[in-house]
Design goal:
This protein has one domain (11-336): Aldolase class I (TIM Barrel). 29% of the residues lie in helices and 18% in strands. It has helices at residues 53-65, 84-92, 111-121, 135-142, 147-160, 179-188, 215-225, 289-294, 299-309, 333-336; strands spanning 11-12, 18-19, 21-25, 70-74, 101-106, 125-129, 163-170, 192-197, 228-230, 240-244, 250-254, 267-270, 275-277, 285-287. Helix 2 packs parallel to helix 3 (111-121). It is globular, with a radius of gyration of 19 Å. The structure holds S-adenosylmethionine (SAM) and iron/sulfur cluster.
């Protein structure tokens, strides 16, 4: 039987955490090559290994039937996946029928044309990654990105009614001087800003430790200029929020390295090939593609999901260490989905 939405179901992992949030990386490909995320010459997964849009809908529906009520579509760059809108439309139909929210994380390059259809599909909130508002630095960080496309995307998203949050990876010696102007700009435009620490995921050209900027330090610096009050605001993600007195806006901090965010982890991550990672920072994974394709009924798939949740680890073991040459986890963030 295809899985039906269940309003009372809940998946509990071995550490008592309810798993209600699924992140889906719909492609590992991207139209940018951010220096901290990817190497310049990436080898992408073979297209033949990827789940079809229909298969992604089926896996997401199985998770909804198990109590997942929030899904974030990510990548790679999700908006470069062919026919991705169909996925949003199909999942959008489940909002109010098991799913309470469908969101997106994007680099914003394709948003100008996707903003309105995303709204029409039921998306109300998106995260746009933007590490610099200086077009030269933006091109340097993304290796070839055009800032104006992202800015046009953000305009289109706000005009369509989407609530936009800006994500910025804090990079020592690269964009740290832009943190305050970025926050002021975002808050002026009624957007929250979330800062992220760089995480040791996948081989890249440079040594990540040289760019690692602890957000504990950034917060201490910001506290000298602004009044930061701990906020009760939660989005279900790993950020801790602060209300900024002077701007009336919100600042989020994602600090996987300087503060472990695992105790309240409520999420699992599906790759575009149907591999389920129970933790962003661990290698253990479950193959859902095999049970998915083995039968048109969902029984095997649902059993594989249960078995995977029983193996969810307590947390990651990230360290950014100059003496360690290889990243903590070999796969890139673009594969598991940020
Ligand atoms: N392409 C989309 C984007 O950039 O928003 C979605 C995927 S991207 C992998 C999701 C988020 O992960 C982005 O905000 C990006 O800045 C962040 N990210 C990528 N690699 C990272 C790393 N090694 N450490 C910390 N954040 C990373
Ligand atoms: Fe692409 Fe996003 Fe990674 Fe940048 S962070 S290379 S936009 S997947």
């Amino acid at each position: 039987m295809p899985a039906q939405a269940c309003y009372t179901c809940v998946m509990i992992d071995p550490f008592g955490r309810a798993i209600s949030y699924l992140r889906v990386s719909v492609t590992d490909r991207c139209d940018l090559r951010c220096v901290y995320c990817m190497s310049e010459h990436m080898t992408f997964l073979p297209k033949s290994d990827m789940l079809t849009i229909e298969e992604l809908v089926r896996v997401c529906s199985a998770f909804i039937s198990k109590g997942v009520n929030r899904i974030r579509i990510t990548g790679g760059e999700p908006l470069v996946r062919r026919n991705v809108l169909h996925l949003f439309e199909e999942l959008g139909r489940k909002i109010g029928d098991g799913l309470s929210e469908l969101t997106l994380t994007t680099n914003g390059t394709q948003l100008a044309r996707f903003a309105r259809p995303l709204w029409d599909a039921g998306v109300r909130r998106i995260n746009v990654s933007l590490d610099s508002r200086d077009s030269e630095l933006f091109a340097q960080i993304t290796r070839w990105g055009e800032l104006k496309k992202v800015m046009a995307g953000i305009d289109a998203a706000q005009n369509a009614g989407l609530k936009v949050k800006i994500n910025m990876v804090a990079l020592k010696g690269l964009n740290e001087h832009e943190i305050v102007p970025m926050m002021l700009w975002a808050h002026r435009r009624n957007m929250d800003l979330t800062l992220i620490e760089t995480m040791p995921l996948g081989e890249i050209e440079e040594d990540r430790s040289s760019r690692f900027l602890p957000l504990s330090q950034v917060k201490a610096d910001l506290s000298r200029q602004f009044t930061l009050a701990s906020s009760v605001h939660r989005t279900g993600g790993p950020a801790r929020y602060y209300d900024v007195g002077e701007t009336g806006g919100r600042l989020g901090l994602i600090t996987p390295l300087s503060h472990n965010f695992c105790e309240t982890c409520n999420r699992v991550r599906l790759t575009c090939t149907g591999t389920l990672y129970m933790c962003l920072g661990q290698d253990d994974a479950a193959d859902l593609r095999q049970p998915l394709r083995a039968s048109n009924e969902d029984d095997l798939l649902l059993a594989a999901i249960d078995e995977a949740i029983e193996r969810k680890p307590k947390g990651h073991d990230f360290v950014i260490d100059r003496t360690r040459r290889s990243p903590a986890v070999a796969r890139h963030m673009s594969m598991t989905g940020g």
